[in-house]
Every structure is written in structure tokens, then in C-alpha cells.
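Narrative of activities, Objective 1.

The group set out to show that a structural description can be obtained from nothing but a protein's sequence at a throughput compatible with the screening campaign. Below is one input-output pair from the validation batch, recorded exactly as produced.
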Amino acid sequence: MGDFMRLKGKTAIVTGGASGFGAGIARKFATEGAQVIVADLNLDGAQTIAAEIGGIAQLCNVSDLDSVFAMKDAALTAFGHLDILVNNAGTTHLPLALEDVTAADFEKVYNVNIKSVYLTAQAFVPHFKERGCGAILNVASTGGVSPRPRLTWYNASKGWMITATKGMAVELAPSGIRVNAINPVAGETPLLKSFMGEDTPEIRAKFLSTIPIGRFSTPEDMGNAACFLCSDEASMITGVAMEVDGGRCI
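Output recorded for this entry:
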């Protein structure tokens, strides 16, 4: 790697950073020189990752306005400014017929996957506009591009996220702010069992058969893609929803 660090001097927040793809993104960002706030509802998990990467742990409920603004205050107190915001926190409902998903589960998906993007934009876009720069990365899903049955409301929330990414990108570009998304296929994260319904070798094999490269997305895959999109190397890239899915959407 030498002295070349793609995020040297950058400050970042990764929501849902205590586990899964978020932890992979936080680790990669730190390796590339960024100072990282690991934000999560699971404070213990966030503290573990933060300690490992020399970052800062922040308790945050991304669906709650006050909690998101407290995260903003913590970031600006710690760093003085923010360069990168990664909206990674996400949730799903269990695989079910679409009419059988409970209102409570629908609300949870809506709050964590949709409302959070709006709230973090409220908190950080004015700061990015003031500075004339900033990068936002939304972690969406292949489900938002190529929905499969029984995860309909989850897939719809990620389709919303992809459209929001494009809308934000075109509106915020004149302010020097880039907004992109990555679309992972399912990976070895806490949500995998929820996506599959149950985790058996047979169900895994069936799932993997839909991914041409033949493996799940890893936190490292997401970290690498996120690092590129949030770095100055990607200064001409905005409004993309990059599939990091081993060919699953082809």
C-alpha cells in the first residue's frame, strides 16, 4: 500500500457500522486513512469495531430525528467537519407473502431503510453545502433492481433508496456533493438468515446458484467498493447504484 491512502485526512460516519457490511466499510475506510465514527443501535458492537480501527463509537437510532442530530453534533465536535456519510443501517422483514407482512414489520423497514436517508440528509446536507463538498453513499440492494418474491416491501424500500440516490445526486451536484449507492447481494451478515427464512445447506446452495460468481458478498467487497466511490478517485461519479453482486442482476 505504501504511503498512498485514498481517504487520508477524510472524516466519515458509517451507520450500522457495528457488524456486517457496515463494519467492513468502517475497517476499509480506517485502513485508507479516514477517521471514522461507527454509529449503531448496538453500542457494544460499535465500541468493539471503533476500538479495533481507532475510531469513535456513537449510539444512533437512524430512524429518530433527535438521535441523528445528536450523531451530527458528535461528529462535528470530534472532527470539526464531515467529508463522508455512509447510510448503511438497514433491516428487513422475514420472507413472507406480501399481504402477510405485519404493519409493525412494514413500519420498521420503512423507518430504518427509507426515513433514515431523509433524516441524515436533513442533518448533513446543509453542512456539506456550506463546505461545497461531501460524499454520501447509500447501501441499497440488488433487491431494489431485481426483486425476488416474498421480500416485496424490503425490495421496495431499496428501490426507493436507489431513486433517492439519483434524485439527491442530480440536485446536489451543483453544490459539490456526490451521492452514490452500492447494491450488494446477500452476504454473511446478521441479515442473511432473515433473507433466507432459515439457514440450511440446501437453501444456501439454492441462493448461491443465482450468483454467477458463486459466492456471497463479503464485508470486504462492500468496503472496497465504498472506499472507491467515496474517494477523490470517483470525483466524476455521482448518481450510480453500483452492483457488487457477482453478476446476480444480469
